Amino acid sequence: MQISLTNVEKTFTGRDGKHTALAGVSLQIPSGAFVCLLGPSGCGKTTVLNLIAGFEAADSGTVLVDGKPVAGPGPDRVVMFQDPALFPWLSVAENVAFPLEKRGLSTAERAERVDEALRVVHLYKFKHAQPHELSGGMRARAAIARALVMDPRVMLMDEPFAALDAQTRELLQQEIERVWQRTKSTMVFVTHDNREAVRLATTVVVMGTRPGTVKLEIDVEQDLPRPRDPLDRNVNLLVTRVQRALQSEIEKIAREESDDRPTPPSRRGRDEPDMGRDI
């Protein structure tokens, strides 16, 4: 399912007035692509996800999915957040089946699709467990199964592994890579981890901030699965390129915040001449 954003603008109004989250954002995501969005906090990554999901509407510009304007949420697009948000009073299987109940599927069909999704993420043996009996990584896999059971054509992921330890995170990166290759869904994945983006994505999109813009798009041409070796030369070259693009944005934010900070009255201004000290 192809996704297209053209000259998208989005502004929010808060206590401090209006804030432009996105300005002139254009992004073309081919069907079946795996796109990772990177950028400093506040650059509009989650806003882009919400626009595609239909949770927000653009102030101007167009957001199209398969050539049609996004008018609201739909079953063709599922969103996975950092918090798996499992219902604690339901079993793993019941959590995964929950969105299917809303669609009115029969009990037999729900059971078949839930079992298949749980097998894909290696949780079938834990289908009757409660969420509190699972590790953090297993809860994340249950959330992936709940997304898969809808058979979505677009999967939108907002830092789904950010709260996990490094070892679990790497296992789930492999899991989501395998799921994407199996389902051929279009993936849009928000992350702050440069190496995670380079390992997973067919295209890495680096966003600039204040306001949010698309600063750089990098096509990752290496075949999947990519080397997990931290010393792999090709991966490290791409990680370095992404880091350089991000660094300029981080430095920009630091300069802006420094300029906004008032000079304490006890300190002499940078351009004030040195008059010496009283004797």
Number of helices: 7
Largest sheet: 6 strands, mixed
Taking all Cα atoms into account, the compactness measure Rg is 22 Å
Please give the order of strands in the largest beta sheet: 6-7-8-3-9-10
> Helix content range of the residues, please?
25-40%
Q: Uncertain runs with pLDDT below 50, 5 residues or more?
A: 266-279
User: Would you tell me the structural class of the helices and strands?
Assistant: alpha/beta
Rounded to the nearest angstrom, the distance between the terminal CA atoms is 77 Å
Q: Which shape, going by the Cα principal axes?
A: globular
Mean pLDDT over the residues: 86
Strand content: 15-25%
- The total count of strands amounts to 10
Order of helices and strands: EEEHEEEHHHEHEHEEH
